[in-house]
């Protein structure tokens, strides 16, 4: 019997005391003066976005800033969505050509980073994994009513592999080795969008902000009314509730978490996670429940969090230390959860 948990796994981090810090705000309140707190929010990329600004940019107001935010999000969606049939990525995926296919600089940049992490993780992070994600019922095609067969998995395995994808940055273009190769940037595009929004806020002279897209975040400066930097709570991987596992202070840095406990289905009491290992074609089955990565780039943090989760505790922890990543691992045990962290991450923990 199949049972499903339809909660998204994307909202794995949340802001401590955000509602207390910004409660009572409205669009009207956000219109006057550059010291007024503001939160802009909405839907994007199948999840939410929230931009918290401690100080309004000079000569700006809420409506103008929200328009700029949503213009960037619409642009990234039009470039990288697999749900929009006319997006750059969808057009590339549907093309049967194996010649160079022109794309935007942004799309080429994100795919280049995806290929880099693919190579550095020995194939654990793979932006061509879409056919397997769909096969297991976690993609745009929706859920299926039974488990994939070994034959179906083996067939899809022949259609993936980022080593079959080439990217050119100037002029920006993509090229695939065979016509049915598909690219899915869902494990890295949200992080890139966070970076884009942060760069826009920086260009406007914004001195303090927190950008959040589905739990992938980037922060700068201090919270309004406080001399302290933004404090981010990393969620404990408990399905039934939201509990804080660890607190991190962010300043001019980004955070992303990947976990196996919010988006899954069960068959005969066996859980099948949405996190698919491209090396086996099957959902991960190890005890690593979540990985959080802090980095200057949210795109990098986003991609690496997924890669390390797929690798599992031993391989992931070893690689994180080798690459000097600030990474935090939460591992399931019989008694609860166990933590492991790299030296770089340990320095970020909020002191009790």
TrEMBL record:
Its job: Flavin transferase that catalyzes the transfer of the FMN moiety of FAD and its covalent binding to the hydroxyl group of a threonine residue in a target flavoprotein.
GO CC terms: plasma membrane
UniProt EC number: 2.7.1.180
UniProt cofactor(s): Mg(2+); Mn(2+)
Binding residue positions for Mg(2+): 187, 302, 306
Chief location bin: membrane
Superkingdom to which the source organism belongs: Bacteria
Family as reported in the entry's similarity comment: Belongs to the ApbE family.
Protein's name in the database: FAD:protein FMN transferase
Cofactor note: Magnesium. Can also use manganese.
Keyword hit for Magnesium: yes
Catalytic activity: L-threonyl-[protein] + FAD = FMN-L-threonyl-[protein] + AMP + H(+)
Signal peptide: 1-23
Protein source organism: Candidatus Moanibacter tarae
InterPro entries per UniProt: ApbE (IPR024932), ApbE-like_sf (IPR003374)
One GO molecular-function entry: transferase activity
Gene name, Swiss-Prot/TrEMBL: apbE
Keywords linked to the UniProt accession: Cell inner membrane, Cell membrane, FAD, Flavoprotein, Lipoprotein, Magnesium, Membrane, Metal-binding, Palmitate, Signal, Transferase
Record membrane topology: Lipid-anchor
Compartment list: Cell inner membrane
Pfam families: ApbE
């Amino acid at each position: 019997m199949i049972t499903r948990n339809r909660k998204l796994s994307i909202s794995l981090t949340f802001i401590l005391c955000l509602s207390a810090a910004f409660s009572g705000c409205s669009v009207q309140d956000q219109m006057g003066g550059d010291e007024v707190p503001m939160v802009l929010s909405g839907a994007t990329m199948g999840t939410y976005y929230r931009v918290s600004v401690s100080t309004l940019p000079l000569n700006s107001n809420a409506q103008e800033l929200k328009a700029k935010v949503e213009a960037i999000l619409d642009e990234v969606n039009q470039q990288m969505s697999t749900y929009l049939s006319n997006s750059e990525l969808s057009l590339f995926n549907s093309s049967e050509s194996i010649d160079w296919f022109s794309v935007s600089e942004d799309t080429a940049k994100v795919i280049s980073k995806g290929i880099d992490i693919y190579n550095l993780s020995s194939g654990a992070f793979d932006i061509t994994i879409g056919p397997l994600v769909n096969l297991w019922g976690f993609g745009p095609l929706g859920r299926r009513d039974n488990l994939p067969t070994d034959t179906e998995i083996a067939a899809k395995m022949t259609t993936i592999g980022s080593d079959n994808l080439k990217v050119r940055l100037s002029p920006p273009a993509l090229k695939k080795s065979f016509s049915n190769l598909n690219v899915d940037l869902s494990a890295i595009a949200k992080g890139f969008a966070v970076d884009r929004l942060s760069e826009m806020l920086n260009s406007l002279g914004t001195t303090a902000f927190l950008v959040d897209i589905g739990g992938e975040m980037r922060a700068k400066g201090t919270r309004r009314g406080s001399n302290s930097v933004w404090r981010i709570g990393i969620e404990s991987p408990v399905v039934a509730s939201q509990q804080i596992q660890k607190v991190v202070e962010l300043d001019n840095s980004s955070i992303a978490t990947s976990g196996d406990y919010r988006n899954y289905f069960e068959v005969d009491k066996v859980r099948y996670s949405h996190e698919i290992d491209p090396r086996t074609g099957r959902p991960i089955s190890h005890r690593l429940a979540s990985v959080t990565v802090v980095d200057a780039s949210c795109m990098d943090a986003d991609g690496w969090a997924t890669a390390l989760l797929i690798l599992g505790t031993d391989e992931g922890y070893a690689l994180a230390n080798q690459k000097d990543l600030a990474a935090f691992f939460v591992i399931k045990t019989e008694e609860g959860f166990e933590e492991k962290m790299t030296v770089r991450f340990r320095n970020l923990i909020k002191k009790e």
